[in-house]
């Protein structure tokens, strides 16, 4: 990621931000964590228990002093342990929460219908995969918010990451409907948390070259089409714009924005 330039300094001074979904330096969440740190936040990371060491290496490279907190959003016990673990680190309030978690097995990508000729066993397996994908990719947002709810207060900001769900993108398969469900959860949470002064928004990013994107069939074709359509152009290797926009939402600079999907995509969406 290119070092951010031209930003006011200290947008997140004296704010504590929890970032989920950091797996590798190329992760969008890693770029968000870096920009948040540069803007003065205390940044804490979570990592899946199976890949905790990998997330820890990213945290070390960023110079984060706090240990990575284990979190499996599909496990109720792991979610219940999150707030106590954060309290053990001296965290009593979360000013920002970044949800950057999604999962869909390969059989759910490409198309929403099962392959022609798929038998009962394959269809049953696909149904199980879809249930888990929904839990991890969509239902995990309200589950995560619920887990840290006592730490959220007036001025706190929650940001999740989505991808244009208004159109059908080749190869995206079930992730399109799952992202639509995630965006619906954003709107519902914005209403339910509004009285507490907590904002909930989503960033809809253009395609970025991450490990997860590599599993999408014909991702390169999608990326080329996107770059050609975007009035501002689009670099799939640079998550800086997404990270900076996320940090803006985490800051106090957009105090009346909630329940929104903010498109950070080079303008490709307006072209159609």
Automatic annotation (TrEMBL):
Its EC number is 1.3.1.9. Pathway: Lipid metabolism. InterPro entries: Enoyl-ACP_Rdtase_NADH, NAD(P)-bd_dom_sf, SDR_fam. It catalyses: a 2,3-saturated acyl-[ACP] + NAD(+) = a (2E)-enoyl-[ACP] + NADH + H(+). One of its GO terms (biological process) is fatty acid biosynthetic process. It is an enzyme of class 1 (oxidoreductase). Keywords: Fatty acid biosynthesis, Fatty acid metabolism, Lipid biosynthesis, Lipid metabolism, NAD, Oxidoreductase. Pfam families: adh_short_C2. The keyword Acetylation does not apply. GO terms for molecular function: enoyl-[acyl-carrier-protein] reductase (NADH) activity. Belongs to the short-chain dehydrogenases/reductases (SDR) family. FabI subfamily. This is Enoyl-[acyl-carrier-protein] reductase [NADH]. The gene is inhA.
């Amino acid at each position: 990621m290119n070092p951010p330039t031209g930003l006011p300094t200290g947008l997140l001074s004296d704010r504590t931000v929890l970032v989920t979904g950091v797996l590798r330096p190329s992760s969008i969440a890693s770029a968000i964590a870096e920009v948040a740190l540069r803007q003065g936040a205390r940044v804490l990371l979570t990592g899946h228990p199976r890949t905790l060491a990998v997330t820890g290496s990213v945290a070390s490279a960023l110079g984060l002093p706090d240990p990575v907190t284990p979190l499996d959003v599909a496990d109720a016990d792991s979610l219940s342990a999150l707030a106590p673990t954060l309290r053990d680190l001296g965290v009593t309030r979360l000013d920002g929460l970044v949800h950057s978690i999604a999962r869909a097995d390969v059989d759910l990508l490409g198309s929403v219908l099962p392959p022609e000729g798929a038998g009962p066993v394959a269809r049953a397996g696909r149904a199980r995969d879809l249930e888990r994908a929904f839990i991890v990719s969509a239902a995990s947002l309200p589950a995560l918010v619920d887990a840290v709810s006592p730490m959220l207060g007036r001025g706190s900001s929650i940001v999740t990451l989505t991808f244009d769900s208004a159109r059908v993108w080749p190869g995206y398969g079930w992730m399109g409907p799952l992202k639509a469900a995630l965006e619906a959860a954003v709107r519902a949470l914005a209403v339910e948390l509004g009285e507490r002064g907590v904002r909930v928004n989503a960033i809809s990013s253009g395609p970025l070259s991450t490990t997860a994107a590599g599993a999408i069939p014909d991702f390169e074709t999608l990326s080329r089409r996107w770059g050609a359509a975007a009035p501002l152009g689009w670099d799939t290797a640079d998550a800086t714009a997404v990270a900076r926009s996320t940090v803006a939402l985490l800051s106090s600079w957009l105090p009346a924005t909630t329940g929104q999907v903010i498109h950070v995509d080079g303008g490709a969406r307006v072209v159609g």
